[in-house]
Amino acid sequence: MPGSVKLRSIKKFGQENNAYEFNDEGQNGEYMTMASSKDSKKAGQKKEQPAIRVGFFQLFRFASCREVLMMVAGSFCAVLHGSAQPLMLLVFGMLTDTFIEYDMELQELLNPDKHCMNNTIQYRNLTAEENAELNMTKACGILDIEYEMTNFAYYYVGIGAAVFILGYFQISLWVTAAARQIQIIRRMYFRKVMRMEIGWFDCNSVGELNTRMSDDINKINDAIADQVGIFIQRFTTFACGFLMGFVKGWKLTLVIIAVSPLIGVGAALMALFVAKLTGQELQAYAKAGAVADEVLSSIRTVAAFGGETKEVERYDRNLISAQRWGIRKGLIMGFFTGYMWFIIFLCYALAFWYGSSLVLDTQEYSPGTLLQVFFGVLIAALNLGQASPCLEAFASGRGAATIIFETIDREPEIDCMSDAGYKLDRVKGDIEFHNVTFHYPSRPEVKILEQLSLQVTSGETTAFVGPSGAGKSTAVQLIQRFYDPKEGMVTLDGHDIRGLNIQWLRSLIGIVEQEPVLFATTIAENIRYGRPAVSSDDIIKAAKEANAYNFIMDLPQKFDTLVGEGGGQMSGGQKQRIAIARALVRNPRILLLDMATSALDNESEAVVQEALDKVRMGRTTISIAHRLSTIKNADVIVGFEHGRAVERGKHEELLERKGVYFTLVTLQSQGDKALNEKARKMAEGENANKTDEDAESRSLIRAGSYRASLRASIRQRTKSQLSSVIPESSVAIVGELGPRSYSQSHSPRGDKAADPEEDEEEVVEPAPVARILKYNAPEWPYMVFGSIGAAVNGGVNPVYSLLFSQILATFTMPDPVEQRNAINGICLFFVLVGLTSFFTQMLQGYAFSKSGELLTRRLRRLGFRAMLGQEIGWFDDHRNSPGALTTRLATDASQVQGATGSQIGMIVNSLTNIGVAVIISFYFSWKLTLVILCFLPFLALSGGFQAKMLTGFAKQDKQAMEAAGQISGEALNNIRTIAGLGKERSFMEMYEAQLEGPYRAALNKANVYGACYGFAQCIVFMANSASYRFGGYLVRQEGLHFSMVFRVISAIVTSGTALGRASSYTPDYAKAKISAARFFQLLDRIPTISVYSSQGQTWSDFRGELQFLDCKFTYPTRPDIQVLNGLRVSVRPGQTLAFVGSSGCGKSTSIQLLERFYDPDHGTVLVDGHDSTKVNVSFLRSKIGIVSQEPILFDCSIADNIRYGDNQRDIGMNDIIAAAKKAQLHDFVMGLPEKYKTNVGAQGSQLSRGQKQRIAIARAIIRDPKILLLDEATSALDTESEKTVQEALDKAREGRTCIVIAHRLSTIQNSDIIAVMSRGYVIEQGNHEQLMAKKGAYYKLVTTGAPIS
Fold it and tell me: Its GO CC terms (predicted)?
């Protein structure tokens, strides 16, 4: 299905799609076509649709009139606000002209021959008539500069005040309107999701729905809130700026516009190159990541063959190319940034050169006009650039809205909230299936029920039995109408249930599931969920009927005890009984028991079973179960197979039929008999142990995870006891039929309970920067040069303000020739500054990317080395799964760059910028500088605030949504239970109540945010008004040259924005420090079994004598399951020891202790009489060769895989061939086209099992180990390859100490010692003959001819 690739991309949002990965095809298609499954033609076209199917204005479809008014008013304010900046330029132009005029007057009066008379400048020694003839009409003395400046200051303050008010309204109106709409969208979405039929949930993972509720709706919020206002404002500024340029001076505007494509092209090329190079870099890193993933996934193999250093080298080799691309990226970015600055400075030069000629030569413009035009175009261009992030927000909002709105518009196929349908007056409770065919919507290719027909008579108990996947639970779900059958119908008292009212139908049904779901509230409330208006007496009565009353009354808070998240504080039996009470409180006509007792231990099962037998009277009961005890006394037993009911009748009748039921029963009773035998045998030894455990399972309030693993261990034990006695072939069937709880719920239950406690990331102290820099020390030359470049770049901005004021000064020069030269000089200087900027930007980009990439590579390498050096137990922790570790290597290491590298560049840049600006300003006019510096903190604040605004206030919103998120999470995770109880409405109400808080918070935010925004925007106007007014005073009273006023103001204002920019980098910086801290935590962790240390004993005459003395061991991640329980066994050099026993009895564990993957908790493992914990790890491992059941090969050639056996020396081809011959591998390899150079594929996927196994044997042989460990080395093979491999192994065993774990007799018979293990210790040992004579467990295994497991 080629379409599925596209669909994946649409589902980028909630990236927890793993719920799907395993059904290859159907699902992906299903996901998008769910909505139109009624009309498959539509579905076909739907796949080709784009990811965004919502127009921008459709985002506002939930706005009421009031919101529309708010948004219109907000937009109006935004338009006015946008025109404020160009308006300010008009004032600025007039202000400049005033200053220049005043200065010209002063220049004239500098001439000693002239003086001011009757407000005109006249020659002193001439009469009035002569002056008139000379055209001396230039006014003087009229211009009161201070008075003019006061006026301009008032203009500025007026504009500033308007901006503050407009900014406030623009933001707060938009944000308020958005908050209301978002609340509506959340409400509608949650309502609709809760109404969806269960089939829809099968196709949408809960994780993803939760993500949609939080992140995606936040994305819509970003798209319809303040960003719209800001976009309108910026766009208006852009339009007004250009308009002003064209109106005031079209010639200059056209000249400036002509240059701008160069900048555009530069930006586009830069984006293109950076994207390309980032792609290359990621690809190169992906190779290294694949190496890391491969190595971490097969860490045991790496450790066993001592390949750590080799792997670190291999990883490092792959990092080099990633580093190269990263450096290139830095260089290119530096190049293009430099290029853009260069063009910008050229543009300045051109504009001022051409503009000044228009002012002086043709006198078309006044100097003020020149500035208005120039800055008008500049501001327009800047604002256009700043408007683009808003477009991004709009696009992602539309993308997010696509799926959310489609869900809101989708009509559920089975609508649980609808009032349609009949309600019968009296219900008897006869249920019948008529030729029902059904498949789950998420897996349309698997037919679950096929033409199922069966009757359930009212008042009787009907038991459904059959192997897993036969459709028993599905039939029950159809009775609840979670799904509708594709063909046929289900009837209740003769009425098709599709015609009945859903809520009413479900209120008749009580259901107790295998894994009952409790909600995170009190016991009483949980029972009350069964029926809303139920009295306390009814609750107590139901609890008594369910055998729950006594244990509840023993709890300190009785019925008000909280059951914890998902009922985690209760044991399985207690949860089960509360669930039964909840079902009984409904007083149901129909009781559905889906494996209600399977997950319990025997004791609680008896209690729960008793409760169930009590309540079945007089109700139609359907019970699904696997345990004989549960089924025997049912009125009717129905046997299921492949989605059909193949037999029905009473217990005795079905036994005679010898069908499905018969196989189930015979298997179980056999197993039970054997178990009882064994239990009696072990009772003596285990007695003390056992009572403990029961007491523990009774005592109640324990942490959830402990309880879960206890249950898991009880289950594990039942499983292993069964399998140790029942022959292999039959165990498989029991696995099929046998309590589902064994195989499946073992892991999820354990994990689920253990998760919440461990999932919280450990909080780490941010790392000190000094330590990060220490790792970067070797790159100091790069960092020095980079910093120099950055410093020069920082100085460029203030230099620009120097040049700019210098140009203004030239306009008042009296001598035209001198004027021209000065202007040309300044323009040339602009070009020079541009060139300098170009080179220093490149230097800064290259130097810092080089030092940053080298640091990243160094950290990745160190991190990877540290990971490989940890003991194996560390990898068992789910936080250290290969996936998590590879991500940590990928992201943390590159985030650390945020604290060094380019980050230092930014900081140096900003600091020099501010420094140079302040120095220049103080030098030219310290008084004015002090006045402006008062505004600097505010300018910096507003800069920082702008940066913060762009990132948005997402974090606060997220926290406000957490409570609502918990409710939605609980509701969606347990949707089946909620639907079964008909509780959708109450969850909707709870959710909506929780939305009030975030909504109020959003309204508050609107005001604060609006005020801040208005303030940030208006502060510039205020600063200007004060500084120009004071500048006027200085010019008049202290004879300051007017160009200095401009010089000082523009220098400080540009540096203020630089300060703001610098403050916006802090988030990266903080992130970097945290990442670094996580990294250092890994580097500083001291493994309990260290591979890299050279300490520990070594000796030259290694013989290979092994003794296990009273070893006890539990895995660190499951401390409550005792795996080895006093293992005692010894092997002399050259002997072969075989371990046999059921799975889970500790055979493989003993091998892992020998390899020192773990150390025993108690007791010792002696190697040649030395305590293994004191032996050097790599020395010990170098003497051991291992061949495991599923050998792990690396993705390289066959020769390299064999070479891996010994990483201490260089191995020639002859050795490899010799080893391959011993392993019966050589002939097969020579038959391959590339012989030993053949690549085996990822994890050896190109080879068959037998071939992989033989490569693994060759790998073990080339080590020339003294000890050979064979962990079920032949169990996975067919007979043919087994023979070859077995021969190879027999050859390999000669003269070595050998430990074999095997299930096939042929493999074990000729061992020197056979040890039969159970529950972590040896029950009998000896050679084949001795054990046969004992007639114990081994004898039984051999005579039944069973594979030993």
Answer: apical plasma membrane; recycling endosome membrane
